[in-house]
Each structure stands twice: as C-alpha cells, then as structure tokens.
Amino acid sequence: MKVCVIGLGYIGLPTATVLADSGHLVVGVDTNKETVDTVNRGMIHIAEPHLREKVAAAVREGRLRASEVPEEADAFIIAVPTPLAADRKADLSYVKSAAAEIVPCLRKGNLVILESTVPPRTTVDVLLPILGESGLVPGEDLLVAFCPERVLPGKILEELVNNNRVIGGINGKSAMAAAALYSTFVKGELLQTDATTAEMTKLMENTYRDVNIALANEFAMVAEHAGVNVWEAIHFANQHPRVNILQPGPGVGGHCIAVDPWFIVEKAAGKARLIQTARSVNGGMPRYVVEKIRQLTEGIAAPKIALLGLTYKANVDDCRESPALVIKKILEGLGLQAVAHDPLAKNVKTVSLREALSQADLTVLLVNHEAFGSLDPEELAGLVRRKVLLDTRGVVCRRLWEAAGFRVEVLGEGARPLFPDETGAEKKIS
C-alpha cells in the first residue's frame, strides 16, 4: 500500500519507518521544512535507538520520502501532537489541521487512522465532520479508525512491532481495514473495538501510571515526615504478590503521562476526582523539591545550584513537560543561580558538567541518565564549593559519595537504610 503519515515526530517517523521496512511505500508529511529535508537525506532529528539506520535504508531504497504537503494514498495516518492548552484542555488544532490537509487527497476506499492521543469522542465528533467535507461518507466510502500508539521512548521500534495494538473503528468494516494494515508489521495481538473505547483505553493506560506515581510521591512525603526510608519501605511492600508500588521522583513529565489525565478530566468534570488529585500531587512535586533545595542552601549568600538532568525521564532527549525544567524555572524566579548539565537534552540551554559543578553549593540529581551513574564523586569533590548532594531519584550509592566527603540527602528518605550489604553499600533498590 501507499501510506501517507502526517507528522514526523517521536511517533510519526518511527511509524513511517516501520511501515516502509514492511514493504509499503510511505510518504511522511511534516510542516517543518528542516525535518523534511533531514529525513530525505536519510537522517533523523530525534534520538531513538536503531532509527537512524532504518530511516537511511528506507530512503536509500525508495520506500520512504518526506514532503511538506500530503498526497493521494491508500491510507493516511495522523500522528501529530495534542498538547495541553493553557486551560488544561486538549489542543486539537494540529489534528484538525492535519485532517483538513488530507481532505483534497481523499478518494473512495481510503483508510484514515488517527494515532494522536485525544479526548474521548474526538474521532466521531471532530475528525469525521472534517473528513466528510471531502464528499465521501465516513464508514462507507471512507474507512476511519483510532489506533493509539503505546510505546516506550528508547524502545519505540521494538514495541511498535511487538506490543498488542488497540484498533478502534467507527464501524466494523473500518476496524477490519485498519487491522489489516497493522497486521503487516505488528506481531502482537490486534484488539478490535470502537473508536471511542480505543480513545478511552489510551487515556486510561497513562492515567493509571500517573495515579500510581502520585501514590509513590505521596508515600515519599509521608515517609520524610514520619522518619521512614520510603525506598526500603517500597522495596519491602513490593514483595507482596499483589503490590507493585512505583518509584517517587521530582514530578512527572513527557507528552503522555503528564498530559493525558487532563483529557479525561476535561470530559468528566467533577467525576474524575482521584485523577485530578493525582495530577495535583505530581504537579506539585517540583515545588516540593525546590523547598528542599532552599532548606539545603539556607544561610548561603547567592548559592549556586548544579542541576543534573533536564529531560523528562532517563536516557531520552525529550524535555516536554519535564519537571526538571519546572524546578529550574522556579529557582530562577526566586533569584537563585541554577546551572544545568544534561548530555542528552535537546532545545534547552545546558553547560558542561565541569561548568555546572564548578563552585556549586548544592548538586541536585534530577534525572537518572546512565551517564550520571558513572560519575566519580572523588573527581567532582574537587570542583564544588560545598559537598552536598540531593538525589531525587534514589539511585546514588551513598557509600561512594560519602567516602568522597559529600553529605547525601535523598527524596523520601526520612531515615537512613538500616541494613547495608556485605560491601558496606546500601542495598540496591530496583
């Protein structure tokens, strides 16, 4: 089939690449000329393992090319952003624009798939009326489905192929047509349902994570108040066969977990109380961390704070909705000098590790990149002014840092771990 993929971002480009790798002829569409030119050179503009070589091969073999405008095809996949607007409602402007752009290209028998995460009923209430402007009847002349992505950054290519996929058609014929397309590259199960159920399913998946992270964050704050080490308590609680408490941290970021719960709140005002409370807890964690930073720098004139990590999670370059960026912004708003180092972060200002730590009064680990796991505390001790480390991820080896003279503070640690292992280091909590 010839497939036109609208949007060449973190989901669109990998999807276009997997389709091309499966033998389809793919045209990737993006309004950013630089992105289009980059892809047509066989290069990539996002960081994702193995994507670069696959894009290069697909372009070289003529199965993938990029364009600034859509063109006639057998199937269209819309994979554009749905950011959160200022009123905490879904900004559907990109979805609407993408749908309107493909209308002149639609022909009888075409398949249109929306992959962008959206509030329930967006496919039937927003997308269908726009597609109907083509003169084709959705569900009869035009097959339409909502098929959400459910992949993990860093494993996108693998999970696009191996994960089960939810196929939500506006009718049975549409669901079957979408399933037929995905079956050409998906090895997981194809679960067919209606479009609105598929929309809700996607939101529920990410909201489940958000609510459970909020529980872990609340446990961390309670543990500090009660004099308990939350990391040990979580480790022990998770030995229960039906308990799986997630890890606390400085907040929740990214384009999904920090955003999607609001789409449910938007559609169910007053009925999504737990969901809204979880968003409040996770959204409040950056300020909670800032307060700890203020306590640790109290009495120091013009303290310098070194922030390690600005992305929304470990080992990605994506800074969307990153709590680390919020923390940096709050600190700067308080007139404090906050200098950040991140070896991966894109589109944000960072400095070298040496520059960030030079004469720092407090070092704050905000993102547990693998690169930070190999830091040498002995070497860093010679750079900083005060040897104080705040670990918001519960990952540092206290023994090594304290041996280098650092005072180590850990988010959620109301008490020190009781039982060191045989080497003298704290137990590894995974």
Task: Give a brief rundown of this model.
Helices cover 39% and strands 13% of the residues.
Mean pLDDT: 94
According to CATH, what is the class of the largest domain?
A: Alpha Beta
**Largest sheet, described in full?**
8 strands, mixed
The CATH architecture of the largest domain can be named as: 3-Layer(aba) Sandwich
**Overall spatial form:** elongated
Write the element-wise H/E pattern from the N-terminal end onward: EHEHHEEHEHEHEHEHHHHEHEHEHHEHE
**Which structural category do the helix and sheet elements fall into?**
alpha/beta
Distance between the termini: 45 Å
Main sheet strand line-up? 3-2-1-4-5-6-7-8
How many whole angstroms does the radius of gyration measure? 24 Å
Tell me how many strands there are.
Answer: 13
Proportion of beta-strand residues: 5-15%
Task: Report the uncertain regions.
Answer: 421-430
Number of helices: 16
CATH H level, superfamily name of the largest domain: NAD(P)-binding Rossmann-like Domain
Helix residue percentage: 25-40%
